[in-house]
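Researcher: Go.
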Amino acid sequence: MTGKLWGVRISIMLNYAICEIGGKQYKVIPNFPLEIDYQGEKGADIEANVLLIADGGKVQIGKPYLKEKLTLKFVENIKGEKIRVSKFHAKANYRKTVGIRPKLTRVVLTVKKGS
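Model: Structure:
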């Protein structure tokens, strides 16, 4: 990958994967934490289907999945940023605001294994 970062030309080969967890697709980079939808209190490792792997300039694309699966190590369950939703009706003196902090699960990619 070649591009500019803060006005400096860089050339990097990123290792990453696009995987599917709970019906959503996430970009996973080894040893970087990733926050995904809540996966329960169990704290077990999560196995994810792989759609794409970019490793040292080589890209593998699945149709729709690759044979490899990623094992994501459970780190912790956390609460996300507060989401606020406001309702307003003009000329009716109606104002309502509700908020929620969604539960998230933090995971880290540590092991790749083929199946």
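Model: The two ends are 29 Å apart (CA to CA).
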